[in-house]
What we know:
The structure holds two protein chains of two kinds. Chain A is mainly alpha-helical. Chain A folds into two domains: 1-82, Up-down Bundle (Four Helix Bundle (Hemerythrin (Met), subunit A)); 127-170. Chain A has helices spanning 3-24, 28-48, 52-77, 91-113, 133-141, 145-166. The longest helix of chain A has 26 residues, at 52-77. Chain A is globular and about 55 Å long. In chain A, 25% of the residues are buried. In chain B, α1 packs antiparallel against α2 and α2 (32-57) runs antiparallel to α3. Chain B has a domain at 31-91: Helix Hairpins (Orthogonal Bundle). Chains A and B meet through α1, α2, α3, α4 and α5 of A and α1, α2 and α3 of B.
Amino acid sequence: MNAPQLIFAGLAFATVFSAVLVIAARNPINSAMSLVATFLFLAAIYAQLLAHTIAVLQVLVYAGAIMVLFLFVIMLLSLTHLGEPTPRPAFHQVVGGVAAVAVLAGLVMAILRWHAMAGAGRARESLLRFGTLEQVGGLLYTRWLLPFEAVSLLLLVAMVGAVVVAKPRI
Amino acid sequence: MEISPVDTQNYLLLAATLFCTGMLGVLVRRNALVVFMSIELMLNAANLTFLAAARERLDSTGHLAALFVIAVAAAEAAIGLAIVIAVFRNRGTVNVEDIRTMKY
């Protein structure tokens, strides 16, 4: 194993470990902090995939903005003292757990049978510029301008909707 | 700069593991906030798949797909947390099993 493979193995293990902590922690605050760790490890993996722009956005938007929103709501509801009394797992929870493991087995079998497309589309773009802000931004503001504007409308609607839903009296 | 020698398959396997971890959280946990965090995990697994495919094909369109997923996740988190706050104000709980008015 060479250095990039070792780095990937370490990052992948850390990502899965912190992701398991997210769903295993009893305190929602611990879940949220584990989720921040997961997002940071994933950002490192994105950078290894040459997606530098998305890695930066992952840290700014996910680990920054979205997780601050989560922590704010957790603190606002002050749920920490409630906890979960961990009653017996209900029937649907057992079925859900088995289903998740079955989906994982199916996905792993499908991925192991998949073969790389032998360099299909390789070298379509210059590797030096791949994943840079220049290239992603260029595509975003030319060919994908309409979806980009639609996303801005979606964010506006979400903002107004969040205020309307969360406000006790309008 | 060159393509790192890690196989695309490894990234896909990691994404599958993350997705199923999130799915397990959605199906098993009772706290609505933890369910939302598990959904964020599943969205990130989808992003990882997009970026792995983008590198495999050296096509930046996958990066744009990941960008749009991040924007939709931000909108979803804002609306979802607003709904959680509204439910908590009316019911005093965020346990998804106590909220069953629309079930029957």
